[in-house]
Amino acid sequence: MTTRDAGCTNVSIPICENKRNASGSVSVGFPITMMVTGVVGNSLALILVYISYRKKENRRKKSFLLFIGSLALTDLFGQLLTSPIVISVYLADLNWCTIDTSGNLCAYFGVCMTTFGLCALFLASAMAMERAMAITNPHWYSNHMKTSITKQTLAAIWCFGFLFALLPIAGIGEYTNQWPGTWCFIRTGKSEAHGNVFFAITFAVLGIFSLLVTLSCNVMTIRGLIIRCKTKTGGSQSSKQWERLTTETVIQLLGIMCVLIICWSPLLVLLLRMIYNQVSSQECNSTYAKPGTSQNKVLNLDCDFFLTAIRLASLNQILDPWVYLLFREILLRKFCIMANAVSNCSVEDQMETQTALDALNKQNQDGNNICKSPSN
Predict the structure, then answer these.
(1) Other CB atoms closer than 10 Å to residue 188's CB: what's the count?
(2) What is the crossing angle of helices 294-321 and 29-55, to 10°?
(3) Measuring CA to CA, which residue among 369, 348, 340 is closest to residue 61?
(4) Is pLDDT of 1 > 60?
(5) What is the pLDDT of residues 342-363, one digit of tens each?
(6) For residue 23, which phi and psi values (nearest 5 degrees)?
(7) 20 within 8 A of 93, measured Cβ to Cβ
(8) Do 162 and 115 form a contact (C-beta atoms < 8 A)?
(9) Model-level pTM greater than 0.90?
(10) How far apart are CA 183 and CA 177, in angstroms?
(11) Is the confidence at residue 115, as pLDDT, over 80?
């Protein structure tokens, strides 16, 4: 591999060679299937969120919808801006130089991977924090959480993710073509680029920190729901409804936590390991060309695992709309009912109160009519 310094841009230009044998049995159908599935799922989520957002007037519901819609939009653009390039490389017999004659496409791909990867993780953390505040401190949430704050948070997340991804373009860090030559990402091995280790470690640390925040907030939410559910134990209809809502929401949050851990932990942990050992996936090209030694077999295993890790991270873009929304179309309604119930202003309580008031008014009106009838 050679490194070209075009102005301040740090991007490693791959040696043009055919790696069809290194790719194993994976065909072009695999990235096509992932792209179609991701686009369909996130598009359905966006349509559902848009329809629901236009109908909602409660700011709590709108904030939740904004987070869900932003995550779906981020995952959708992440699929649309990167998957066509991967498919093109597969169709070009895994020869990156066939489609990247200028050498700038690798930097573009790396920026997209970094931006949409970080933004998806940060959005998941922001949603987890919003849920935790709504459940554990509902009165503060109702008084201080506004839709404008949600919009500002989303803008800050997108801006930070994009500006961080541009650091290699400014000369800090480096993007390079990764084995088997179908994608580009942060360089983890030895590099002449300034601040490459800092950039790579920062990405991994930010990702792990985001995962920890998401998991911690979801645990707090689950704990708050269980405590509230215990205080409402009884045989009444509202108590049974609370138990059902708590069970469904806890299962939902556990599913979200499992998906995040399975999809992102392997890549982030492996990045730190490769940075520490100063190993890059670029070495996989020569290793697969000269197999045989035990050291090469170990590196082969790391190469396969690294490729699997990035595919798992890409799989998260497909699973997000399903675990957050599509598997349970009524998740929003359930969450808002529960959040309102926590703050003692649930829709059911309001309806029951209004029904009782109507019955009382009717009784008073009937009593007045009886009292007036003798005089008539």
Answers:
(1) 28
(2) 30
(3) 340
(4) no
(5) 554 444 444 444 454 455 455 4
(6) -80, -5
(7) yes
(8) yes
(9) no
(10) 6
(11) yes
Q: How far is CA 140 from CA 29, 130, 199, in A?
A: 50, 12, 37
Q: Given CA atoms 122, 267, 308, 168 in this order, what sign does their dihedral have?
A: positive
**Spatial distance between the Cα atoms of 361 and 329, rounded to a whole number of angstroms:** 38
Label residue 27 by pLDDT band (50, 70, 90): confident
Apex CA 234: angle with CA 228 and CA 236, to 5°? Answer: 105
Q: From the CB of residue 64, how many other CB atoms can be counted at a distance below 10 Å? A: 25
What DSSP character marks residue 22? T
Structure tokens at 210: 């985001």
User: What is the rounded CA–CA span in Å between residue 59 and residue 349?
Assistant: 19
Phi and psi at residue 53, in whole multiples of 5°? -65, -35
DSSP 164-201: HHTTTTTTSS-EEEETTTTEEEE--S--SSTTHHHHHH
**How many C-beta atoms surround the C-beta of residue 354 within 10 A?**
10
Among the listed residues 112, 46, 136, 82, the one whose alpha carbon sits nearest the alpha carbon of residue 324: 46
* pLDDT value, residue 88: 92
Angle at 138 between CA 137 and CA 142, to 5 degrees: 125
The answer to whether 324 and 68 are in contact (CB under 8 A) is yes
**Running DSSP on this structure, what letter comes out for residue 23?**
T
Q: Which two tokens stand for residue 37?
A: 């599935």
From 229, 222, 226, 224, select the one nearest 253 (Cα to Cα). 222
